[in-house]
Fold each of these.
Amino acid sequence: MSMPRRAGGRAGHAPSLTGLAAERASGALLCDAGTVYLRDGQVVHAESPVAPGIEVLLTTGGRLTADNWREAVGRTGPDGGVGRFLVDSGRLSDAELEICHLGALFDAAYFALGHGSGPRGFQRGAAHWLGPVCAVGAVAVERETRRRGKLLDSLWPYPRVDTEPVVLRRPDGRAPAVTPRQRAVLALADGVRTPARIARELGRPAFHTLIDIRRLAAAGHVATPRPAGPERPGRPDPPARSGASAPPAADRGPAAAVFTDPDIDLLRRLRDALEATL
Amino acid sequence: MPGIDECLLEAMTVNGARGAAVIEWTSGLALGMVGEVRDEDPEATAAETAELARMAAEQRAFAALGAGGAKGGSDSGAGSGPDADDTDGEPAVEDIIVTTRTCYHLLRFVDTAFDSGVFCYLWLDRREANLALARMRLRDMCGRLALI
């Protein structure tokens, strides 16, 4: 798919993840929709306002209590090592910490490095309070970010469902059944909560929730927002974040672009919409 | 307490093991992989394997029976089923076994108390492996991954 605007960065001097990895840099790569932490050129963590942090993932599901978490943060000080403390104090196994950490890392990296978010600056020497857990090659992180974008587009190529409030919709009789995980998402879909907020309340990675939302939208269980302007499939909007700059309107394609790739689901839903107005 | 890599290296000590991985079935991401690779794109293979796990985990055909699960009125989709509570967490499916003429593929869901959606994958040479034994080894390893 198209992803032309990452490698070179913007304005000529913006740092790139691959460039920083090549010089084995350590620090925080500040992006529009998140931060990617490097240590000796390897990605050691990522954060995004869209993606629930590791503390949300571990405490919402009940794996750790808020007290456990406060204790770990209080005992380790500002220079990190919270992850190590949780394992050494017997709260988590190494594998649990690694599984949760890697899940949170790739989740946040998808938003920080994905379409619509670019690097803005690099804070050399900055380290994350979690401390070292796992390190992943920058190339692997970028490849996974691209794979995730393609996966979402293959499910339902309407990226606005990722950022808009989730609105329930009455599906037609042939819509695929809702899975237990999707049911939990639907239970929070009140027309106000966005997918990011639903993910946070469920204690799930945001990307996993986007997969469910796109599937639910494709099946007609939740509404696909009408494009405010014309929407171009395969070109997601930037994740919602205060301060993130919206793409210029001139960047959008012509109105007909919405219908360049009709499929059975879309046609069926169009039929339903027409019948509903009769 | 073992980490992902230790678990994978242990999996490779199972008789006939050719490869092992820890994969998120929810996203298709491989968190760790060891052993032989079957093709140039092991990550795509992991994602395909995750798709099989997802189908098994989410299809109602394999949902746990009992506890009032097998009622007549199937839920009509968007309505939030009142009996969603105990199917809401980890999948009811424990493991998935695929046999081919030359290989066994074992997938075992890992029970974590946070929303991980992770399974262990073990790929075995059929000539050397003992399927029943390998399944028990994998079950024990997955049990040791999480502290619960």
Amino acid sequence: MSVKTSKKEVEMDKLQNSVQRIILMCSLAAALRYWLMLSKYQSVIANHVEVSTPMNSWKRVSEGLYLLSRNIDPYSGDLLHETPLSLFFYKVLLNVFQQQIHWMFITFDLATGILLFATARKYMSQLYKEENANKSTFSKDALQYLLKPTDLIKSPFHVLLAFLFNPFTLFNCVGYSTTVFHNLFLSLLLFSMVLGIPIIGSVSLALSASMSFYPSILIIPISLYHINIFKSVTKAIIDIIIFIVSVSLITIFCSHYAKDFGYLKNVYGCILTVPDLQPNIGLFWYFFTEMFDHFRDLFIYSFQINATLLYLVPLSIKFRKQPFLLTLALLFIITVFKSYPCVGDVGFVLSLLPCFVHLLNYCQQGFLVGVIFLIASSLAPILWYLWIYCNSANANFYFGVTLAFAIAQIFLLTDVLFAQVKREFILEHGKERKVNGEEGILCLE
Amino acid sequence: MQFLTCATYLIFYVNSVLTYNSDTFTEELLIKPLYSEQIYAHFQFTTKWDVDPNTETFNHSRIFPRALGEIVKRYNVQELHVSLTGGLWRYDSWGYPVTDAAPGAEVWAWFKTDTKDVNKNWKLLANSLSGLLCASLNFVDTSNSVSPEFSFKPTGVTDSPNVNSSYLSSGVSGLASLLNSGYIHNTRYHSVALHLRPVCRDETCQSLSLELQQSVSLVYDYLILGTKNWSLRKLFGQGVTRNCILASRSEIYVDTTTSSTHSFELSPPPDDVVTSIRGGHVSTFGKYNVPNYFLHISAKYEESQKLAVVSPPSLYASQYLTGYGQERGGIVTKLYNNHWDNLNVVVLQNIPWYVPIYLHTLKVTTDGVNNEPITLRYIPGIQRERPYYLEILLKLPPKSATAVSIDFDYVFLKWQEYPPDANHGFYIGSAIISSHLTLARNYTGLPQDGSTITDSFNASRSGYLVQVRTENMVITLPTPDFSMPYNVICLACTVVALAFGPLHNITTRRLVLKPKNNEKLLFRLKRKLTEFLKK
């Protein structure tokens, strides 16, 4: 009896301890954000093209809200690319927060962090349970590579840490980019996915899909999660149905609020056809600046298919047993190949990586990727300044940096996926790499 | 058949004989020494044709240019105003011109109410005008035109900077003989304009007439002339050879109002002295009737000159860009009200689509204090389709300077959308500030109901419409590297391929353990190299 209570006490202690840590981290992160937001650096950060794209800049939202307040249709021009629902959402939020924009962004960013923490915690424990249950099928000498109980405690904190103190997400929040809200819906989606709640998951998926279109492909990993982890096909079907219903409800609301369907051209037309060629960290802007007009459509189609459908099916088949990894991979691909990516998207995906601590041993390009990330993110603002303000560099310099940044993300993604393949192989066949007693090498065939 | 043709001919003949007698042509030249170091010359050629503009076919005309008539008929134009201008009119030191004109080209037209597709007709009209006037007005279309609500009655206003000005001269004799291109381009400011409108035939206004004003405004600088003692020969290269035979009146007016402070003597002395009292402002003019022989006028200034306190006109404006770099900027329009009373003004901004403005950043401050616009009309622009149209009705307090500022972003265009000289920059047209002044100080404009300079004498009205145009502005948009399309396409596709390769491998192949024999050449070399280095 006493042992039991002490165990409970220890758990309570642990819980209290972790809650304390979360509160400490959150308040530190909030203080850091608040300080940056009130400092002169706020406008500098918000004005950077890496942070604010035409899709997510708060300046355009303010313009839209202002036009709305003057009874001018904000979708009659082409500055605003947010959906009417988002506009309505921001209007309500601004009333709730009494125009305290910074607190609004900080609150949502912290909420995203906490949701990601909870997601990671749940996911890690699921993975741990699953691995323990399948222990017998693994090779004997590979058991040391299984998840350890300490990982279950540490990784979620690393996720929280990576989200709250990652300069990418930090700048994203300080720069008042609406990706903050987008990230919240994504994290809500991940949270409900690992928890197996279909309604919240599909609704938040529908919301984030309505905001930026690309996440709609995440319906596949969500369904796979229900099918393969919770072994429930009905849940998956319910999920898809709710997704479709909520997308149509959102569309109806939007068209009602904007009084017509003109917003579709401004929001999805802009995302898909890339008429605004303002530089960002993605691949589209310079490519379509320099594109010959008669090939434009062809390349728009191929780039958009590349960002959404091309890898969807093969990855979904290959990683159907690891839908969470599949989600990460798809998020990564969207971030690299979407038309208007920003550092907020990158930061969000990067902060999920500590969930895959078990793959760390098999990653080979961590150093390379880290160095490219570091160099690219420090060079980008410098070369931008040289090009736009000093006229001593030109567009090619900045383009080079964005290429390097994209390459780093691609390397990271392929490294993680390859690590998963290798880990599976080693868990199955053991760590020995001997073929008929001779040294062997692992290769894809 | 033969008879029918004859009859038709006869009818047309009679018709044309009737129309021949119904048009009048007057030519006038106003020379006005400005208080500053410039002299202003304004040629006004007015054709008034007593026909109903709604029914006239423009098949026959005498003085009225038929080429213009055909265009007007074809595109259902009711009123047409075109001006091609080089240089900037300095309102603050020169006062108001007889006709306002924006730097560059400006076209505004009013189409008849039964016009089906105004936008189409507008585009076609601009194209026809560009052919007629040899100006690049063909760049005028809906992507750089707006339909103002307050500033103009008519439908379109536009600014296109690529001007290649040439002029519809009404003949080589008469005052037009003074227009020699070498001397026109030797000026601080030159503007040719064409204004076509229907007017009342008489006071009862029972029937309409068509009025065509063609004008040339020139501002010479004494510094360029080399002396203050001007003469027709110094200004235009030659004197007037004789009056125009077709003209019913052919007159030259020299404004002698400045003579009280900067006295000069005219030779030959004017035929007549006209005193005009207009809006509480007295001006005197020396009048010459151009004879049917050679006329040369010159002015000689006296040595001792008094200093004159010149008060600037009641309303003038200027416009400039703020910010640095090629990322974000602002447009500031400064309006100066020197009047002793409030002035209501309409500010019209036609901002091209490549300068996206943010309405929420619009700030109107009068001497540092916020000045809320009375009314505001705004139609946001669309990239490559429609400019930003902003029209603000403001009340300017007496003796004040008001700044209207708005922020914009620099946009990035496709590489083929840049002009051949991409780093020359892109133009932002001038703002147009309209107001009704109660005083006619510095005002030389024609009254609404008048068509000649003579009509403006003693023409006191309740208000004097001024339309002040500000400077054009040039912004240099950030440019891509125009030599790189292939490289960019290749490099970006390489990155896509970098993702495709490994993802394709991971998803379609299986991981297997292979014996490590058949050491490859490269590996063998590498091993040997490391062994060698170890030694």
